Amino acid sequence: MRETNGPTLDQDTGPPAMPLYPRSQIACRSNRARGAGMVSYNVNGTELQISGHPEVYGPSDDTLLLAGAIGNARGRALEIGTGSGMAAIYMAKRGLEVVATDINPHALRLARQNARQNGVSIDIVRADIFDGIGGRFDTIVFNPPYLPTSPGDVTGDRWFDASVNGGPDGLRFTQRFLGGLRERLSGRGKAFILSSSLAGFPARPPPGLAWRVVAEAKLDFELLEVRRIIHC
């Protein structure tokens, strides 16, 4: 695991040449959960019952890696792009006060349903990254859309496209998140963001922030990493 602070650089390989199969592979793994009924998951010993919906990106390898990396966070929490609500529900079951956001109205309804069936209370809000979100949070979690995307990659499935398409370099939403993070992360807070080797990751943290890779998973066609970000 490595830490980046100030002038020390994280390797920036940039977006690799994009093979054709990852998009269909990601759609396939998402579809398994999107069409599912209630599925049981265990994250760090916490049992979760999560239902799917055809218009919502379902729990997958990236979701589980990110939720598992949160660990024993405390305080006020924000999950951006909550989807099914898995990470938000995990944090709520661990005693955090949680706000969960998404731009997909189907995701908001599904997250409310999943929160109810897991017996937790979550403030669920329609918002885009930090737009419309006030205050500071002790824990902030984001699994951004990260696939490098050209106009020809748009499938016409509006909400699937919104959940995976990250712009030409795959980093459009990651950069927006990093640009607004300092204003929303409490002084001793921690943020967790997922990245994929399909898109790379910015070489430097924004001024005043440092990051460290705290979890990773090698899949057939990508390396997933979770970075923990703090003030420095």
Shape: globular
CATH architecture: 3-Layer(aba) Sandwich
Beta-strand percentage? 25-35%
- Poorly predicted tracts of residues: 1-21
Widest sheet, order of strands: 1-9-10-8-7-4-5-6
Radius of gyration: 16 Å
- The CATH homologous superfamily name equals Vaccinia Virus protein VP39
Q: How much helix, percentage-wise, in residues?
A: 25-40%
Round the mean pLDDT to the nearest integer and report it. 85
CATH fold description: Rossmann fold
> Which CATH top level class fits?
Alpha Beta
Treating each run of at least 4 consecutive H or I residues as one helix, how many helices? 6
- Count of beta strands: 10
How many domains in all? 1
Largest sheet data: 8 strands, mixed
Order of helices and strands: EHEEHEHEHEEHHEEE
Structure summary:
The protein has helices at residues 21-34, 61-70, 86-93, 105-117, 158-164, 172-181; strands at residues 3-5, 39-43, 46-50, 76-80, 97-102, 123-126, 137-142, 185-196, 209-218, 223-231. By secondary structure, the protein is α/β, with parallel strands linked by helices. The strands form 2 sheets. An 8-stranded mixed beta sheet has the order 1-9-10-8-7-4-5-6, sandwiched between helices.
